[in-house]
């Protein structure tokens, strides 16, 4: 009798330990982006949005599969490709199977190559790279691979939408192009030159230059050249501190034309521009914030602000990334087999709370979605940024932008 009782106790203990171990098996997502240095505010804001999306969209609904929770872990890459590769290996060693990154296409290029190499050499610990903001077109063209998915529109898709708007504005005859000196900045310049030439051959490019990324303390010399050029409009792909520094300097030096941007909202940028940016700052992006596209989006935004009073939902693609990953895991029936999850992501159509749908194009893993041209303003703003009176309001929309755009990707599947 004693032996039976003892065996029963041991079995019960084993069940408890087994259940605890199973409960502890979170689905880990590594966020590899700058959490220190000049772009820390951009990275920290992105991390908070990923953490919130995982909790709100997955964990608070009971998790995935057999109740597995999604855990987002922040890794500071100091916006260095070399440091990013170190953090990638640390994450893989911790059992992470999903990598998210977005700030700097230079980092993304290093990561996608490293992930491809790791997965070929280590089939038992493969990972997926979910790119939420690095928009160098090469990543879904010549450098595409099966393990990389981009949830943001690439630089060419965004420029296509921007140049449609510019081409329709008869008051714009001279354009100045300026950006950060790395792959993304170069892509923005190339796309702007090509597309403006095709749509408005009469527009003169009066300036086209790159500056060191994250190192310019005073943009006055650049701003003075822009104003002296007689430009009617400016195009820039700058982001973070470089966006704010450049934009403020251009405006302070007397420029009053439109500044067309990719990343000129949130993370303190909106509040810093304030009244000075009204009627000047324009930005292209996915997701309609104002007016809200749905009640679901309004509820989501309000819940986020309740948790992060100083934060912003300025990257709606982050919730799309988490939502599509969760859907793929559920459809694949596994959180471990990343090949099955990747197959579920390919060709996925996802109804987003921010309006319209996201289609993950299978031939190059490029997300296709609506593109909005937004204006910095304090009028008609339901959801403001940076605890200011200002936000962005959608002025025009390109539905499923660049749906049929060509790609040079030659996808090799496992």
UniProtKB/TrEMBL annotation:
<dbReference type="InterPro" id="IPR000709">
    <property type="entry name" value="Leu_Ile_Val-bd"/>
</dbReference>
<dbReference type="InterPro" id="IPR028082">
    <property type="entry name" value="Peripla_BP_I"/>
</dbReference>
<feature type="domain" description="Leucine-binding protein">
    <location>
        <begin position="27"/>
        <end position="373"/>
    </location>
</feature>
<protein>
    <submittedName>
        <fullName>Amino acid/amide ABC transporter substrate-binding protein, HAAT family</fullName>
    </submittedName>
</protein>
<keyword id="KW-0732">Signal</keyword>
<dbReference type="GO" id="GO:0006865">
    <property type="term" value="P:amino acid transport"/>
</dbReference>
<comment type="similarity">
    <text>Belongs to the leucine-binding protein family.</text>
</comment>
<keyword id="KW-0029">Amino-acid transport</keyword>
<feature type="signal peptide">
    <location>
        <begin position="1"/>
        <end position="24"/>
    </location>
</feature>
<dbReference type="InterPro" id="IPR028081">
    <property type="entry name" value="Leu-bd"/>
</dbReference>
<dbReference type="Pfam" id="PF13458">
    <property type="entry name" value="Peripla_BP_6"/>
</dbReference>
<keyword id="KW-0813">Transport</keyword>
<dbReference type="InterPro" id="IPR051010">
    <property type="entry name" value="BCAA_transport"/>
</dbReference>
